[in-house]
Amino acid sequence: MINTVIIEDEKPALRKLERMLSNFPEIEIIGKIESVEEGIAWFSENEHPQLIFSDIVLGDGLSFDIFEKMPTKGFIIYTTAFDQYTLKAFKLNSIDYLLKPILEEDLLGAVEKFKSFIPASNTTGSEDIKQLIRKEKSTLSRVLVKIGYNLKIVQAQEISCFFSENKIVYLQTGERAYPSDFTLDELEDILEEKKFFRVNRQFIINSDYIKNIHTSPYYKVDMEFQPQEEITVSRDRVKDFKEWLVG
Q1: Phi, psi of 198 (to 5 degrees)
Q2: What region holds the Response regulatory domain (predicted)?
Q3: Tell me: the pLDDT tens digits for 210-242?
Q4: Strands 75-80 and 94-99: what pairing?
Q5: Cα-trace Rg, the chain
Q6: pLDDT tens digits for 37-47?
Q7: What gap in Å lies between CA 85 and CA 122, rounded to an integer?
Q8: Which residues, 6+ apart, have CB-to-CB distance to 153 below 8 Å?
C-alpha cells in the first residue's frame, strides 16, 4: 500500500480528489490536513507518508511553509488553481504539479510517475527529483497578482511584456502594469519560449503584441502595451532575437 496524505482546505476539492483516488486501490489515505498549522503539527507527530497531494494556497498561508519547517522525504504532487508557484514547488520534492480542475488522465500520469520512482525511493534524493522534473519543463499559463486586498488571475496570453523597475518585476497588460513575485530569471525558465523572449536585462516581451521593430541605429521594439521606457534589444541578443522571431 502507498501511504498518502492530502493537504486541502476546500471541502469540495478534497471530496473530489478522494473520489478520484478511490480508483487506485494501492493508495491508502492516512491523513487529511486543512491548514499550515495543522500540517506542521501532523508532520511533527506522525511518520511521514510516501506520497503527498498538496494544495498550495491555504487559509493561513502556503503549504510550502509546512515543508520548509518539517522537511519530508515523501514525494509531493501539488494540486492548485495557480501555476506561478511551479519553481518553488520543484525545490520541495515535487514530482508533479496538477492544475485544478484536475483531469483523470493527469492524475493517472502523476500516480504512474510516482510509481516509477518507488524502486529507487531509498536512494533518490531531492536533487535527483529536481533533475527528473526539469526534463518535463512546465510553462506558466496564468499569474496570480495582488491588488490591495484582492487577488486577480492574469492569463499569460494577456501579458504584453514583463519588465523590471526598482527591483520589482511587473507584468504589462492592456489595462495596467501589475507587480509580480517573480524575477526575470525565473520567468525565463517557465514562460513559453515560442511566445516570450528576453530582449535585455530589463524586459521580456510577448511576440503577439509586437507592433514594430526598428533596426537602426539599434534594435528597438514597439509593443502594443508597454511602459513609457523604450524596449531595446541587447547587442548580444540580436542574433537570438531574429531567430526567435522566425522560429
Answers
A1: -90, 110
A2: 3-115
A3: 999 999 999 999 999 999 999 999 999 999 999
A4: parallel
A5: 21
A6: 999 999 999 99
A7: 27
A8: 82, 142, 143, 144
3-state secondary structure of 144: strand
Query: How far is the C-alpha of 193 from the C-alpha of 197, rounded, in Å?
Result: 7
Which cell is 6 given?
492530502
Which cell is 119 given? 524502486
Query: Over the stretch 53-98, which tens digit does the pLDDT of each residue have?
Result: 999 999 999 999 999 899 888 899 999 887 666 656 655 567 888 8
CA 154, CA 179: separation in Å to the nearest integer? Answer: 12
Whole-prediction pTM: 0.54
Query: Which of the residue ranges 109-113, 128-132, 229-233 has the most confident prediction, judged by mean pLDDT?
Result: 229-233
On whether the CB atoms of residues 20 and 104 are closer than 8 A, the answer is yes
Q: Where are the beta strands (DSSP E) in the chain?
A: 2-7, 27-33, 51-54, 57-58, 61-62, 75-80, 94-99, 142-147, 150-155, 161-165, 168-172, 177-179, 196-198, 203-206, 210-214, 220-223, 231-232
Do strands 220-223 and 231-232 pair parallel, antiparallel, or not at all (unpaired)?
antiparallel
Q: Quote the CA–CA distance of 3 and 114 in Å, as a whole number.
A: 12
Per-position DSSP letters for 145-165, written without gaps between them: EEETTEEEEEEGGG--EEEEE
| Pair 161, 203: CB distance under 8 Å | yes
Q: How far apart are CA 54 and CA 8, in angstroms?
A: 6
